[in-house]
Give the backbone structure.
Amino acid sequence: MENQPHPENAKLSLVSNHSSAIAAVTQQHDLNTVEDVTARLPAILQTTLELDELIKLFHNEISKIMKFDGLHYQHQGVHYEIQTGSRSHHSCNYRLEINSVWLGELTLTRRSKFNDQDTLLVEDLLCKLIYPLRNCLLFRQAQDAALEDILTGLNNRGAFDSNLQREIDLSQRQRTPMSLIVLDIDHFKTVNDTYGHSGGDLALQALAKSLTDTMRCSDIAFRYGGEEFTLILSNTDNKAAHLVAERIRVAVSQLSCNDDKRAFGFTISLGVAQLQRGENGSTLFDRADHALYQAKKSGRNQTVCATKPISKDH
């Protein structure tokens, strides 16, 4: 992690107007306290690579030397947004970047106006934030890349495992339904044998795009491995999950892939299972996977719902 640069090395753009207060009523900061916080701030911010923790550390430290009601940070490029405290009428807004690399946008709000002394202090503090912030963003991007399937752009098996457990915990805690769909391409070996592995890749990519185009915003899609995909459906019971699965099946059956030589289509089979009370992720997946097996056995290009847990003798 890089050392904190001198403030003038950091590029900060003030993009929204802040209200100026009269100097005579400006609150005077204790210089020793300001010096103490600004001296230790770089070391404190470099103790984490998690964005949530970094923003909270920054909020806690700067609140010791200046008054504000809320801090808001967002970075649309990594789909991240956090709000600490509460929003107020007067704001001071900064667009952060370094070496032409976008680092997001940060806003401080409070009930009283910001004066020139306040904004100078904020800008000095932000200059100490940008390098730790850049490191957190790089770490987050590396994590996202590690959890993404390169061919399809969907989440991968590692992402599925962590998301499944999180959604199960949430479902059980809030006592809301949750369902899992497991699906794969019918006769995928024939697709590969007939159209080559490049044709198989086209089919996988087309399926992934169809999933993202067809599924609901709240659903999460994953490439589990090979030609097998999964979808986690939060707040969704067995009946609703079956409707989602059927909508996906029909959409995929209408796809046409073209390798510049010939066009071909394919179908999928799907298994659906709703989380039951006390059930773990492994059992839920096994039930959905078994339903997929039943769909294959029954002729493919169809959806089968698991109605009860698989017995231990199965």
